[in-house]
Records
---
Amino acid sequence: MSAAIDSFLAMLAAERGAAANTLAAYRRDLEGSEGVVGDLAHASRADLEKLPRAWADLAPSTVARKVSALRQFFGFCIDEGLREDDPSTALPRPQARRPLPKILTHAEVAALFEQAESEAAGDRPAAVRMLALLELLYGSGLRATELVGLPVAAVPRDAPFLTVTGKGGQQRMVPVSRRAQRAIARWMEVRESGSTFLFPSRKGHLTRIRLYQMLKELAARADLDPAKVSPHVLRHAFATHLLEGGADLRVLQTLLGHADIATTQIYTHVDSARLVELVNERHPLAGGRGAG
């Protein structure tokens, strides 16, 4: 594949701190396009016009992502003097609507915790671990990658915070509830020592895939639809339920580790019913008061 793609990805890693998963996604999109049009660094507008036909069966959001990757790549090529023109103007401009996140109700979250707490009552290590994982997913809003990769050193002894390394290697402090602190303490008592990871496995740390599977299995045992439950859904529940409780959007942005508040603002759409209710109850003219 094109050496220009490797150079572009190296730039993303070095200058923007792009995470490994982000770099892998860019590589798939760019190399997939190169498989259609040939060497991307030297592709013409006519070459790129072949891509929409190759993408005919893809969702608008997927096409938008691929177009974004190509536009950034050609911008890089121009900056580096690899070419003078930008053929990406031949690409479509799909308007990808960001889907609203899936939401768990308070009752569904309570059912998950009831099941996890019941199973952990006997101090079986796997069950205690599951409870600690659940507390951190819903109680602190961690991403799956952040959670499974937590080092033991991230758990403070006398402060209710975790030090989390998020996307792009950015670190942030994440509050940990008293419930989660107790769950972590229980897990520390029964986990096998020796690993530098809080949630170790035979080959390093618990994987995202295994975490996903474990949550699905817990949901089934709690008589919930496993299709509704995932690490990301619990992160969404954390954000939505905090917003329902009156959390400030900027605070929520910090807790979630979002670089751009526009990413956080999706939760205002999820909680639109509450916002309408808030206006009706708190606005100075609510209830017909004010000048006639």
Note: The beta strands are 161-165, 171-175, 200-201, 204-205.
---
Amino acid sequence: MQLSEFRDRLNDRLNHADYGGVDASANGLQVGRADGRTVERAAFAVDGVEATAETAADAGADVLVVHHGMVWGGLDRVTGRDYDRVAALVDNDLALYVSHLPLDGHAELGNAAGLAEFLDCEIVEPFGDYGGVTIGQRVRAADPYTVSDLESRLSDLDTGEGSVRTLDFGPDRIEDIAIVTGSGTDWIREAADAGVDALVTGEGKQKAYHEACEAGLNVFLAGHYATETFGVRALADLVEEWGVETTYVDHPTGL
């Protein structure tokens, strides 16, 4: 498959156009020549960094597909860390493809959708407004959780050295859940207004404790990395259906 076709098919499948002007990430092909380049093997990772690029290159990949890319609102200078990351790609003739917010909110391939399936929950509706698009899901558990049971289930995620943190200020019976993967505590107020029993996200901020307490809401912090492996894994399965060989680069941060 040509890299240009690979890029265009992913852009279309992930509805990248809907997030234009909203996402700080430059979604799509960030590094590489789209024309005349063939993709026979694609690597997938959460983060587009030097370590994952080198591992992808060692695996013989032609393109590295990630959730967190290199370009956030512009790239003024390619020096220092940015140079090392670009060099790891260019020196190995490895392209970089990125999908950030589109891969959070996608109803089938997204991180929140994958976490919902992991928790045996049914998607009810999109959740997590961000500039007119949504980046999460409101879901309902097939069988209600207790606070400790949900914390235990989330502990089965690939957290590396991390652990699940729980702000247990809501009901002990948890059925309706809002999911915003990564850094999602800015949506505590929206979750409380929606009347859910809990918000599941990756990492929090200091103010999250007081906001959750005042809202009477359970908040589970299961790790930024751990809650965002689902999207790239789903993309790997999709790309395999296209006849492209795939490899997954696991590089947990514990955060």
Note: Residues 230-241 form the longest helix (12 residues).
